[in-house]
Amino acid sequence: MKMPRDPQIWTDVDRYLEGLFTPPDPALTAALAAADAAGLPAIQVSATQGKLLYLLAKLAGARRILEIGTLAGYSALWMARALPKGGKLITLEADPRHAELAKENLKRAGLELVTEVRVGKALMTLPRLDGPFDLVFIDADKETYPEYLTWALKLTKRGSLIVADNVVRDGRIADPRHPDPRVAAVRRYHELVAAEPRLSATVLQTVGVKGYDGLSFAVVVA
User: Fold this and answer.
1) Non-local CB neighbours of 144 within 8 Å, separated by 6+ positions
2) How many other C-beta atoms are found inside a 10 Å radius of the C-beta of residue 20?
3) CB-based contact 124:163 (threshold 8 Å)
4) How many Å separate Cα 91 from the centre of its chain?
5) Which of 5, 25, 76, 97 could serve as a FRET partner for 196 with CA atoms 20 to 30 Å apart?
């Protein structure tokens, strides 16, 4: 069976699945509404992807979670809800305005005590963190993904999970000569992950309300 070429069917299926597995949630709805009212780009993960992050955190038994790229805190909200008692999520955001909105959204959801939003360029704030983290979610500027991987490896341990979003780029990563520096950086990220003996990884292509993209999953095995 060939994949439908009309992206509308991807959106229709996502909406159907959202209705089944991510029923209306006041805190999540409010976070999205606040981001829209503030004029933030709608580049956060979808509801089904947020639920996936929640499930991954649960499966990993993650007590400490690191997120690189906060935006309005939508994905942070999903992952923070998976934390056990005594758990903590730290999320890094370069834009002070985005960081303040994320703090408000997390506080509204009752998660302000288990989350911390750190403001500043991630490459400046990462060296100040103490690991290890059980789960690292990378969803920030694509050009810096290779450097973020280096830090993720420093701040994790055997058994930790590293997830990266937006790693297929509408299929453009298949073109080694693509001029977009974001595509080149993501290709480099994949190459580094594949060559890293401490990691066992795969990538899943995704379609849905966010269009055509993908997620990378890497487990620290040594």
Assistant:
1) 122, 123, 185
2) 8
3) no
4) 10
5) 76
Residue 1: pLDDT band by 50, 70, 90 thresholds?
A: very low
Q: Are strands 64-68 and 115-119 parallel, antiparallel or unpaired?
A: unpaired
Q: Which two tokens stand for residue 144?
A: 């810096």
CATH H superfamily, domain 7-220 = Vaccinia Virus protein VP39 (3.40.50.150)
Cβ partners under 8 Å of residue 180, min gap 6: 169, 172
Q: Taking a C-beta distance cutoff of 8 angstroms, is the pair 190, 138 a contact?
A: no
In sequence order, which ranges of 126-205 are alpha helices (DSSP H)? 145-154, 181-195
Q: What are the residue ranges spanned by the domains of the chain?
A: 7-220
pLDDT class of 7 with cuts at 50, 70, 90: confident
- Which residues does residue 215 pair with via DSSP β-bridges, in sequence order? 165, 204
Q: Which of 210, 54, 25, 32 is nearest to 137 (CA)?
A: 54
Distance from C-alpha of 23 to C-alpha of 198, rounded to nearest angstrom: 38
**Non-local CB neighbours of 182 within 8 Å, separated by 6+ positions:** 142, 143, 169
What pLDDT, on a 0 to 100 scale, did the predictor assign at position 4? 54
E strand or H helix at 31, and its extent?
Answer: helix 26-37
- CB atoms < 10 A from the CB of 85, how many? 6
DSSP 196: -
> The whole model's pTM is what?
0.96
